[in-house]
UniProtKB/TrEMBL annotation, chains A, B:
This enzyme's EC code(s): 3.2.1.52
GO molecular function: beta-N-acetylhexosaminidase activity
Signal peptide as annotated in the record: 1-23
Organism: Hordeum vulgare subsp. vulgare (Domesticated barley)
UniProt protein name: Beta-hexosaminidase
Pfam families: Glyco_hydro_20 (PF00728), Glycohydro_20b2 (PF14845)
Reaction it catalyzes: Hydrolysis of terminal non-reducing N-acetyl-D-hexosamine residues in N-acetyl-beta-D-hexosaminides
Amino acid sequence: MPPELLACLFLALVAVSASGAAAARRHPAPANSTATGNPVYIWPLPKNFTSGTRTLAVDPDLALDPRGPGGGAAAVAEAFERYRSLIFSPWAHAARPASAGYDVATLTVVVASADETLELGVDESYTIYIAAAGGANSIVGGATIEANTIYGAIRGLETFSQLCVFNYDTKNVEVRYAPWYIQDEPRFAFRGLMLDTSRHYLPVDVIKQVIDSMSFSKLNVLHWHIIDEQSFPLEIPSYPNLWKGSYSKSERYTVEDARYIVSYAKKRGINVMAEIDVPGHAESWGNGYPKLWPSLSYMRKIFPFGLFHLGGDEVYTGCWNLTPHVKQWLDERNMATKDAYKYFVLKAQEIAIDLNWIPVNWEETFNSFGESLNPRTVVHNWLGPGVCPKVVAKGLRCIMSNQGVWYLDHLDVPWEQVYTAEPLAGINDTAQQKLVLGGEVCMWGETADTSDVQQTIWPRAAAAAERMWSQLEAISTQDLETTVLARLHYFRCLLNHRGIAAAPVTNFYARRPPIGPGSCFVQ
Amino acid sequence: MPPELLACLFLALVAVSASGAAAARRHPAPANSTATGNPVYIWPLPKNFTSGTRTLAVDPDLALDPRGPGGGAAAVAEAFERYRSLIFSPWAHAARPASAGYDVATLTVVVASADETLELGVDESYTIYIAAAGGANSIVGGATIEANTIYGAIRGLETFSQLCVFNYDTKNVEVRYAPWYIQDEPRFAFRGLMLDTSRHYLPVDVIKQVIDSMSFSKLNVLHWHIIDEQSFPLEIPSYPNLWKGSYSKSERYTVEDARYIVSYAKKRGINVMAEIDVPGHAESWGNGYPKLWPSLSYMRKIFPFGLFHLGGDEVYTGCWNLTPHVKQWLDERNMATKDAYKYFVLKAQEIAIDLNWIPVNWEETFNSFGESLNPRTVVHNWLGPGVCPKVVAKGLRCIMSNQGVWYLDHLDVPWEQVYTAEPLAGINDTAQQKLVLGGEVCMWGETADTSDVQQTIWPRAAAAAERMWSQLEAISTQDLETTVLARLHYFRCLLNHRGIAAAPVTNFYARRPPIGPGSCFVQ
C-alpha cells in the first residue's frame, strides 16, 4: 500500500488529533484545589482534604487489613470486595516490573464500633490517609480508612475508589496527588432518592442498580413509594388480595423481595423508607379490605428504618360527601370533610407511632393542620420553596423536595438549579437549622420505567447529593460552569464507567440523548 | 379508623382492580400455539415444539448433570450458573412443603463435542425435553438439553430459562404447559448487532451488558465498529500513538480490554467481528503513521473470528486530487481517484486474506467494482433494499442491514417494519439463498452513549433477532398485532426483569419514554 494514498487523510488527522488532545485537556487531572485551584475529582466533595504531588501505584492484589472492633464485620469485607472489583478490571494486569513493587498494597480499615444499626443520624464520618512509604508525612506507607461505624467505612471506601484511577499508559491503577489526607462527614443526615414503583413496576434487579448508584454519590435513604392509585405491587401476607391490584401477576414484590431490597441497601449504608400514601393515593388498595391499617404492623417487620412515610398529599375529600354512609358517619360526628382528612392523618400517625415509627407526611398535612400534627412528625416539602422555614419555626422537622428543583420528572430543570437548591434557605436560627433533616430528589414514575429510570435520575440526583453532603462554604460558588461542571462531568463518566446509564450533563432537558458525537467528559 | 371513611375509596377500587385483572388477561399465560392458538413465550420462536397441559415445579437447588464429551466443559458449567441466577432469585425461597418434592430437580445437558471453536456456521442446534416423572411421554422425569456443541447447549439454556417462570402465588419457579419437546436451530448463521464506539465511547461494562442482552435473543455476532473519524479508542501496541486519537485518556480500550470482550462474548456463543473502516472513515488514525496496515496483523491476534470488516463505505476521494504527492502518485499510474479507491480496497482485502480473514466490505465496494472483489468477500448491505439479490447472483455472500429497517439509530422505524424485513427477499434460487449469511442491526453512535444505548437497541433488535433465527413459515404472519406483539411485549419485560433498559415496544419513535403509567406488558 503506497503511503502516499493515505497522505491526504493525514491532513485532516493533524487537526483531529489536535482536537483530541484538546478534549483531553478539557478533562484536566485531579488536583488539590488548595494548592493549584484545579478540581478535585471526588463527588461529593469531602469536608476537609489536603493533597500532594506524588503518583502512587496501587497493587491489583490490594489486600484488606481490617482493624478495630468493627473492622472485621462481614459488611466491611463485602464492601471492600465490591470496591476492589470497581477499581480493578480483573483482566487488566499491570505491566509493572515485579521489582518496582507497589506504593499501596494494603488498605487498612479501622472501624471503632461493631454496631451495625443503620438509623437516621448514624455516624457516616471517616478519615482517609494515603501516602507512599518514606513520604514526608508518613512513616509507614499505604492507605488507611478510619471510621466510627461500618457505614462511615463504606463511605470512605467510595471515596478511596474515586481516588483510584486506571492509567492507560502505565496500565496501573494510580492515586495521583498523594499524599492525601481527607476528613469527611455529611452536612445532612437524610439524603434521599424517591422511587415510584406504582406508576411503573421496577424489577428488583433495577432497584438494585439504583441502590448501587445511590451509594456512589453517598445518598443514604431510598424512599420507596411502593404503591399508589395505579398499582399495588407489594405482597401483604395477611391481606393476600391486595397485590391483585398489581399491573400483572409478575409485576409484584414478594415479602422476600422487599426484605432483600432492605438488606441489599443496608449493606451499602442506605435505609429504605417505605411509603403507604393515604388517604389521597389509595385507590389500588381494593378487593374488600375495609380495615387496612393492621397491614402496617406487618410492614413494620419488613422495614426496620425508624421513619415511615404516610403520604397525606393530594387528598380529594369531595367524594366523602357523595358516599351516603360516609356522609352519615361525618354528620353523626359533626365533621366536615376537612375534619375527616385531619382525623384520618392523625389516626394514621398514632398507629405508626405505636409501631415505633417516626411518621413522615407530605406538606399538605402541615399546611392544613400543622398545629395538630404529632410533634415527632417529619414534614416532607414538595409544593414549593419556603415551607421548611415555616415547619421548623413550629418545632417540627423537615425534608426538602421542592418540586421546582428536586422532582426529577421535571425534565426542564437544568443541573445548576438542582445544585443550588439549598435546604437551609431562609432558616438562620441554628437550632431551627438542625430540624432540617436534609432533602430528597423524587423520581415519580409516570414516564420512567426500566428503560429510562437511571438516565432520568442521573446525573441530576448527583447535584443534589453534593448539595446535601458537602460543606455549604465549599459548594456555594457563583460560577458553577468553571468550578463545578468539570467535576460533575467527571462523576457522570464514572457512573457510565460503572455501567450506570447516566445521561449527558449539559442538555437543557434531562435524559435527552447526546446531541452528537463526543466525549463523555464534555456532554 | 372507622371503615366507613375508606368506603368511597373503594368505589373506585372495584373499577381499578377490574382493570388490573384485564391487564393481566392482556398478558395471557404461555401456551402451545398448536393446541390452543395462544402465544408461546419463547423469543425467538423455536423451530419445532410440542407442549402439554401440566405445570411442573422446578427445584431452586436445580442441579446440572453434564453428559457427553462436551458436557463437562467449563463453558457449560458457567452458562448453567449464569442461567440459574437468572431463573432463581436467591432470596425467593419456595414455600413448597418438603414432602411435595419438585418435578424438575436436575437439568441434564448432553453435549456431543468438546470442540470449543466458535466460528461462522457453528452448530447452534439443540433439543429440550421437559417432563414430570411418570408423565405420558416420559419414563424418567426432569429436563434434558441435547446439543452437538457447547454453543447449542448455551442456546438451549436460554430457551430453558425462558420456560422457567416464577409463580408469585406459589412462590415456585414453574414450567407451564409441560411436557415440552423442543427442537431448534437458527435459520441464518450470522445474526449480528453492530456497536459504534467511535462516536461515543462505551465502557467495557456497558459492552458486557449489550453482549448479555444479545445472548438473551440468540444474536451471535457483535460487529464492533471500533474506530471512525471521531475517535480511535483502541490500543495498537506497535503504534502506541494511535489511541491518542481517543476522546480522552480514559475513553480507551486496552488490548486486554479487547481480549476480555472477545472472551466474554465467546462464553455466550457470540463472535466479535472487528471493523477498521478504510479508507472513508479513517481520519482519526493520525499522528504520523503512514504505513498503518501492519497494525492489522496485530489485531488478528486479538480477534480470532474468521470475518473481519474492512469498511469501504462513504469514501470521499475528492481530496486525493487536491494533495500534490497523491495526485502525482495517481498520475504516474494513470489512475483516476475511483481507481485508487478500488486499488485501496482490493489491497486491504489481500492483506486480510493473507491473515486468514474473510473480508467483509460495505456495499459501496460491490456497487463500484463488484466484479473485482475477492470471491471470498462478504458484502454488507446498508444503502437500501435489493442489494443482496444482486450480490448473491454474482456468487458473493451477503449480510443484510438495509438502513431503512435495520439501522437502530433510525428512530422512526416501528418494530413491525424491523420484524418483517426479510434477508431473503427477492432471492428465490436455493443455492443463492445459501449465500445470504444473515443480517445485522446497526447501532450507530452519534446520539447513543451509555445513557441510552440499550434503550435504543431494545426491543427492536429482538424483532430482527427472531426474523433471523426462526423459521420463515412461522413468522411470516399478516397480523402482527395479534400474533406477535404479545410475545414481543413479554420478551421486552423479560429484558427489563433481567435489568436491561429495553424501551416500550409500541411507541412510534424508538427509545421514547413510556407515555404514562402502565404495565410493561402493554407499553
